[in-house]
Structure formats: C-alpha cells, structure tokens
Amino acid sequence: MHFSWKILVIAELVNLFCVGLMFWAQWIDKGLPTRGSTITGTHQKFLYMQDFYHCTWGNLIGVPLIICAFGHLMANGFLNWWQWMLICLLAILSAIRYLQSGLSENHKPDQGYPCTGEISLYGLYYLLYFGVCIAMSTTVICYAFVKSFQVTVHYLAAFGLIQYVVCYTADIMTGHFDLLETEQKKKPERASQKGMCYEE
After folding, report:
1. Is 33 inside a domain boundary?
2. What are φ and ψ of residue 32, in 5° steps?
3. How far apart are the first and last CA of the chain?
C-alpha cells in the first residue's frame, strides 16, 4: 500500500462538502432556537454546531484523515463484499443508537434535537454522517491491528483518531454533553405560539 495524495485530497473535499452541508442545514432551519438562548425550564444554553469541538475541529481535521485511511483500504482492494455488509450494518446500527439517544427525554436540546423527541434537518444529515464515520473509524482501527498500513497512512489515521477523541473529550469536560437538567418539572416542549423550546 502506497500513500496517495490524491486520496487525501479527495477525502478532505468530500468531508468538507459534508460538513458544509450540515452547516447549511443548520443555517436554513429558521425553526431552531437562537444560539445561546436558555432552554425552557433550565439554566442551560442552546448550543449550535459551532459550539461543539468535535463538530468543528474534530470533523474538519480528524475525520478527513480517517476517511483518507479508509480510502486507501478501498483503493487497494482490502475490503471484500462481506466486510462491506458489516460496514453498512455497523453504520445503520450506530445511526439508530445515536437517534435513540437524541430523542430521549433526558437529552439536552441542541441544533440536532431542538426539542424533546424532535429531530431537525441538521440532525437528519448528521445521523448519516455519524453512522458512516463510526463504521469507517472502526474499520480503520481493525485494519491497523491486522494489516500493515503504509507508514504515512498509519500515522495520519492515528493522528486523526486521537485528535477527534481529544475534541470529543473537550466537549465532555466543558459540559456540552450534559444531560437535560432534571430538577425542573417542566420539560422543553415546543411552544405553541413561538414554535420553539427556548427563552429569550
């Protein structure tokens, strides 16, 4: 397996398009609460995509490097039909599990799930992106142990995975993934007049 700049550039462009599409979905959704507004019945703030480290730095730097490693596996014929089936199954199951988490009552509303039990246009796009990325990451990690990546590809993939984990950890440490406050009796449901679950 030889390192290919072409695969790296394609990975960067494909990922940039996907991230741009999610930003666009968030931007055109006029039903989303204002960024930084207070979630009804809590003291928590409503976060947008650009508030999450893993959605910005993680998706823009770490993910394309993982896609690059996966692309090298594809280009060099390492993946057979049954592995593709497992990859697709893992992507679907990961997306379903993420959807269940987002729709749960204790999930803090954000740009993907603006109200309890409700998903936004951004959330739909991100489901596909999340499932595919989890499947590709798992495949790359497995092949890193059982197959020999070219050294450049190996280190790029390792850096991408570590960088994304660092960003995800930063989101945890800063409270971006905190559960919805439960001490309040009132759940953030869509208001009938404003059509939003937030307070100015």
Report:
1. no
2. -75, 140
3. 55
pLDDT in tens, 118-142: 999 999 999 999 999 999 999 999 9
Q: Is residue 126, in this structure, part of any structural domain at all?
A: yes
**Phi, psi dihedral angles at 141 (to 5 degrees):** -65, -45
Assess if residue 34 is contained within a domain: no
> Is 23 within a domain?
yes
CA distance 157 to 145: 12
- Residues with Cβ within 8 Å of 196's Cβ and at least 6 positions away in sequence, in order, are 31, 32, 33, 114, 115, 190
Beta carbons of 155 and 66 less than 8 angstroms apart: no
* Domain enclosing residue 51, as ranges: 5-28+43-181
For the chain, the domain total comes to 1
**Secondary structure string (H, E, C) spanning 140-191:** HHHHHHHCCCCHHHHHHHHHHHHHHHHHHHHHHHCCCCCCCCCCCCCCCCCC
Among 197, 199, 22, 55, residue whose Cα is nearest residue 124:
22
Say how far apart CA 74 and CA 141 lie, in whole Å: 15
CA angle (5, 164, 147) in 5-degree steps: 55
pLDDT tens per residue, range 40-95: 888 999 999 999 999 999 999 999 999 999 999 999 989 999 999 999 999 999 99
